[in-house]
Specification:
Largest sheet: none
Order of helices and strands: HHHH
Shape: elongated
Radius of gyration: 21 Å
Distance between the termini: 50 Å
Strand content: under 5%
Number of strands: 0
Oligomer: single chain
Structural class: mainly alpha
Length: 78
């Protein structure tokens, strides 16, 4: 049991170190991470895209129009 806990601790430490290195590299390169609200918008918009795909007979130009107006689309498809 102790060996398992040691292995889990080592994995957690390695993962934490990897995360810290990624964050440091991102800061150094000027990368700006997305805010939680931006991530939520992408998640919501992904659901809209999936629903648009299921609309029978929708054309490419109609899809482009739907994508250009995500708020309107989201309200209409909800």
């Amino acid at each position: 049991m102790s060996d398992l806990l040691d292995e889990l601790s080592e994995r957690a430490a390695a993962e934490d170190y990897r995360r810290q290195r990624q964050e440091a590299s991102a800061r150094k390169s000027g990368f700006v991470p997305m805010r939680p609200d931006e991530l939520q918008q992408l998640t919501d918009f992904d659901a809209v895209l999936r629903r648009i795909r299921l609309i029978p007979g929708i054309t490419g130009s109609e899809t482009s129009l739907q994508l250009a107006t995500p708020r309107t689309t989201r309200a209409r498809l909800a």
